[in-house]
Structure prediction request, 398 residues.
Amino acid sequence: MNAQGYLRPDGRKGIRDVLIVAYLVECAHHTARRIVDLTDDPQVHLVGFPGCYPNDYAKRMMKALVAHPNVGGVLLLSLGCESFDREGLAAHAAANGRPVETVVIQQAGGTRAAIADGRAAVTRIKAQMAENQVRVPLALSDLVVGTICGGSDGTSGITANPAVGRAFDLLVDAGATCIFEETGEMIGCEGPMAHRAANPDVADAIVASIAKAETYYRTMGFGSFAPGNAEGGLSSQEEKSAGAYVKSGSRPIVGVIKPPEQPTAPGLYLMDVVPDGEPRFGFPNISDNAEIVEMIASGAHLTLFTTGRGSVVGSAIAPVIKVTGNPETWQRMGEDMDINAGAIFDGSATLDSVGAEIVTLVEAVAAGAETKSEAMGHREFILTYKSFEPSGPGCFPR
Prediction:
């Protein structure tokens, strides 16, 4: 792969050099957004946590995000009276070599003054990022790649999802780290997944994660099978689960992680996204972008997003490559799609050829090419309350 990455102090390499403006409570959201909008720079992204009540998950997620390899600088926006530990987060960013500043709205004198202070801080941070920038050769083995599906239909499990599975096989074989998730959408697939586990501890963790997801859905009174799935031709939860599962490809599953845990070695990982403990806080993930953010927090440089009916989202921090399995969606929404796996239906492509096409695009995006969502300015981000216990040591490669 002919690409240059951004070398970070921990040895990881980024494929983007983003400055994130992070609000630490919803009360600071508007001010942070205005700073980003007025800066009008595609490499300045808005992220944040809306809650005021403390949450360890959100704290760990934000610490992972400010130190993400695609992030080169950080501006924190605080109202001033929220519970988030802004000093601790700033210290963590600085300890990981990121230039960081904090604007406290109550101390600055209100909205207008904080916006002015924030814009000036962005200018200073960008100058420091330019001074700190070190470019180094980037290989597929340096990458962490995630995958999710959204807006699935009857084509997803036939074309787009298995094509991503073929791409995952190629990426894992090249030494990359790959993450798949959506445990709530793979109920019934725990047996085949456990057979692919690298060791008994991983097999047990896989089975437990699916059992937890099923309990969660039963308790909350809903499942992952949405009306739009049925309208798109999916017949059942079982069909949807099988389709979601094939995104993982065929290589051994070397570990099970929870957000924002970091993979400890290359290979294929399952991410358990359903909160631990008694079911609470509603849905395990309230949108596709919540899942993307969790994979980013666990180190994903980019995400492969499969969709049958169509999705237009992207993400802050890490690019999103959208793969549609439906040729009609490609015709109707091609401006938002990166890969047409629907070509498999008319025989002009195969699962293997589309898988290889996806890997080629991953290489191009890692080298700096924009995805469709990046070109349109999509930088969605969402982070809410959750609760997780740490994964057991047997869930990581030995």
